[in-house]
Amino acid sequence: MDDDAQKNWFAKNIDDLQKELKTDIELGLAEDEVKERLDEFGENKLDDIKKESTLKKIIKQFHDIIIYVLIAATIITFLIEHYIDSAVIGMVVIVNALIGYFQESKAQKALDSIRNMLSVEATVERDGSRVEIDAKQLVRGDVVYLFPGDRVPADIRIVDADNLKVEESALTGESDSVEKQVGALPDDTVLADRINMAFSGTSVTSGTGVGVVVETGNHTEIGKINEQMTEVKEMETPLTKQTAEFGKNITIAVVLIAIAFFVFAYFFRDYEIGELFLSVIAMVVGSIPEGLPAIMSMILAIGVQKMAKRNAIVKSLPSVETLGSVSIINSDKTGTLTKNEMTVKTVITPNQTYSITGEGYAPEGEIQSETKEKDPLLEKFLLATKTANESELFQDENGRWNITGEPTDGCFITLAEKTDLSLPETEEIDKIPFDSSYKYMATLASGEEGRMIYIKGAPGEIFDMLHGNNEFDRNFWEQQMEQMAKHGQRVIAVAYKKVSDQMEDLTHDDVKKDIEFLGLAGIIDPPREEAIQSVKAAQTAGVQVKMITGDHPSTAVAIGKKIGILKNDKAITGKEIDQMSDDELAEVIEDYAVFARTSPANKLRIVKALQKNGEVTSMTGDGVNDAPALKKADIGVAMGIKGTEVSKDASNMILTDDNFSTIVDAIEEGRRVYDNVKKTILFLLPTSAAEGFIVMASILLGISMPLSPVQLLWINMVTAVTISFAFVYEPAEKDVMVRKPREKGSQLLSKYYVFRIFYVAAIVAGTGLIVNTIMVDNGFDHAVANTVTLNIVVFGKMFYLFNVRNEHGFALNKSFFTNKVAFIVCGILIGLQLAITYAPFMHTVFATAPLEFGLWFIPIALGLVVFIVVEMEKYLNRRFFSKH
Ligand code: ATP
């Protein structure tokens, strides 16, 4: 095998292809061969886009106006020979950069680990059997199966195609699908015309196919362009942007105020110019919440990681935020709200009614009838449902019976095993696979009685095909179907058609006439128990749940009631939706919780109508056709297990367990994360403002600064390394899923929060200043008074942290001890305060002095005052004004 020369694979015939790639399209490669090829040519993946080096990332942290100001201050203080100040300011710069770097890389790591979870699977033939593998393990010569919704995992030469259509916009920009063929093409065929090739990164829109891998990794066409396909994008979110913008505005305002104060103090007060300059700088540094955006990204990213642990892979940070405000969950029924473990319970042929015993896929049970009369149609029925089928029954290593493929197919294989009749063998010649847009499947097969088409599908569709068949009494069968559906059974109609022995290809037109009816099957699919709980939880949280299903309205209503979505018998069908205009649909949509007989196209209109009504909408989907609705939804949710790659690409979130409950869990996590971001802001702003107030007030009052510049910088530094981390790990508040969803576009900082910021800042700054003045007046040394003030500010911050931890209730409650990190960081902070108060070298650097024991009561008592005042204000506010 030639390793690096790019070959004209499209120009080769299949025999040459097999020879050159040393493979066999029937058996695939042998595992040993695969190992050798993997060792030789490497994995099938694109090189990572060059990552930023650590140094570059650290340097980036210095690119910030506030840091420029600080660097300028370091240089100026050095020049005026204030070496200690210069060193401390320099330290602040470095510590800030390191914290920023640490937070950013932690966020990046969290996102990278998510990216690794987004691996693409490929179905290959190896050693003669069909297996699913991680697409990275593909090598040249591998035989790959392609199904609708698959992402083509490597460059593949097609060797078999059944209506195979591939959308290649990732490569060519052309969004119309291209129909693929098998025959060799001329040597000079250009890329866009190579219709016997499927290229890595493109996606199968319909049909099925088989191909041989001819290029992998960077050698693929997409690899040559080197574009990453699956990427966790966007570190920025509306929230971080809003805060970054907000932070910038504060910076500008603070700098302007600082300049004004500097000028004022220079002319009207007699501070030493060096100290004044430093105080103003310290005020700027202290008042600006420079760490805010980084800590927010970290909270969001760690949130993403937590969600992944709860089976929800969120692909970008903005979605974490949006999740918190979701007001409607639109969910597929089968497999998400129900178990997707189908069992046929009833069969009705035109001759007899049968009930089937046994549950699940184990072929244990009987097909029982009321009479013992022989029914030739039963045998035909069983043969039809076994043949128009893409599933296989097997026992896993633990002896449990399971199926491959669709449960709606699998349950018929189990059914066929439950009969005593011996069903004849058939050979499949062609097929129309099942698709929810036309809702049936058909197989052309040859058997004992020649060639037949076997069809199974939704009753409405099959009944339409039977139009013109005089023996078929549609009214009667509709009633039968209705009866089954009312019991929550999923109903499948079965038919067949005898065709000529020359027939080779099957098209939709072939099943539209002259078919014979064989009967109905009623299938049960029990609801997931946890889904029932989660529907209730969502409803309590003010989130409506809507069920979208391809099933019959009566089946859907019965299941909707069981799950608790529906209180009445109201369901709307896809057909009814089709007949409505967008405005009409938006008007009535809020009245319906169950959408039946829907097609994927209906989903898009449902999303649009809900969004028109101002709802923040989540929508689930798994098929190729669901992609537009998933993209349009505020939160598109794809199924990790049964979802196609295309649907995963189009979505914001992937459920690794396909479970409805996971969506509700993710919403809860989204609300928690949003709360914590908000709490961080609500914590950082007042405490930063307090530092600014102290400097401003002393300048205005013309008193000596109660905190020296380096002391202010110390406060800034130690609180940045400690308590600002507390909210990353803050658990959800008790009422997180009792509240209504956050309103769309609601302001991050309401007037109430601005009020809170000011009064908390005023208490901390005011008490600090007053105590300082009283102490100095009473003969205490400046150093001692300042050390007390320093501790007042830090303890004020620490106590206030506990106010903010619980915004919606009393701070002292059962969950007080749930956030260990909050206590650890407070412990560290107290340690640091003891160090600055008692360590001799700290005295030299920070001009602090040891405190006698009794003086500690002042900061602790005043911290308590902050705590009690805020708790009282929160209580009054809850009681009399709003929901805060
Ligand atoms: P959802 O997953 O959105 O809840 P669904 O799985 O119930 O929807 P579809 O898969 O679109 O809906 O199925 C619609 C109807 O098509 C079913 O009610 C059933 O009558 C029929 N049907 C489903 N799967 C098959 C199949 N494999 N073979 C034949 N008919 C099928």
UniProtKB/TrEMBL annotation:
GO cellular component annotations of the record: plasma membrane
GO MF, any single term: ATP binding
InterPro entries, sorted: ATPase_P-typ_cation-transptr_C, ATPase_P-typ_cation-transptr_N, ATPase_P-typ_cyto_dom_N, ATPase_P-typ_P_site, ATPase_P-typ_TM_dom_sf, ATPase_P-typ_transduc_dom_A_sf, ATPase_P-type_domA, Cation_transp_ATPase_P-type
Residue ranges annotated for the Cation-transporting P-type ATPase N-terminal domain, each copy included: 8-82
Membrane topology annotation: Multi-pass membrane protein
Gene Ontology terms describing biological process: intracellular potassium ion homeostasis; intracellular sodium ion homeostasis; potassium ion import across plasma membrane; proton transmembrane transport; sodium ion export across plasma membrane
Highest taxon of source: Bacteria
Keyword Cell membrane: yes
Compartment(s): Cell membrane
Membrane-spanning ranges: 62-80, 86-102, 250-268, 280-302, 681-705, 711-732, 753-776, 782-800, 821-841, 853-870
Keywords: ATP-binding, Cell membrane, Ion transport, Magnesium, Membrane, Nucleotide-binding, Phosphoprotein, Translocase, Transmembrane, Transmembrane helix, Transport
Family: Belongs to the cation transport ATPase (P-type) (TC 3.A.3) family. Type IIA subfamily.
Protein name: Carbonate dehydratase
Species the sequence originates in: Paraliobacillus quinghaiensis
